[in-house]
Amino acid sequence: MAETQDRTQRDLKTREKQVRYVYKPSSALPDPTPDPDFEFRWIATHILGQSDPTNVSRKTRDGWVPVKAVDHPELMMEGNAVTGNVEIGGLMLCKIHKGQLQAMAEYYASQAQNQMDSVDNHFMRNNDPRMPLFSDRKSTTTRGAGFGSGSK
Q1: Which stretches of the chain score pLDDT less than 70?
Q2: CA atoms within 13 A of residue 144's CA, in its CB half-sphere
Q3: Is the pTM of this model over 0.85?
Q4: Tally of CB atoms within 10 A around 67
């Protein structure tokens, strides 16, 4: 007795979609739920097992505020026993208002621009009309006419 074969083209056949699990390794530091008004960052409290209070003090003076564990239950962790802050492996989660962060970025951009202007002024101070200096910040590369073409 001959078996009947299904002659339907393979691309016309459908099968039920299977949900595939895609592995994503866990992060060493969990991310809090994003807040449109605040930026989050991990601040070092300990370096090589030694307490670093000057770093934490400087960051808090700059406007970074420690995040309390009770405010972010999605991190699924208990806070520091003493402070209640979110801390993992010598790092403390802190937040800052985005307006303050933008002001800091503008300040440091201004400092960098002032330094570049100072370098340019110092460089151009040595300018002589007989042999002018150029302060163009462009770089170009050129090749000779016969270079690499095989012609002599």
Answers
A1: 1-4, 11-16, 129-139, 144-152
A2: 7
A3: no
A4: 23
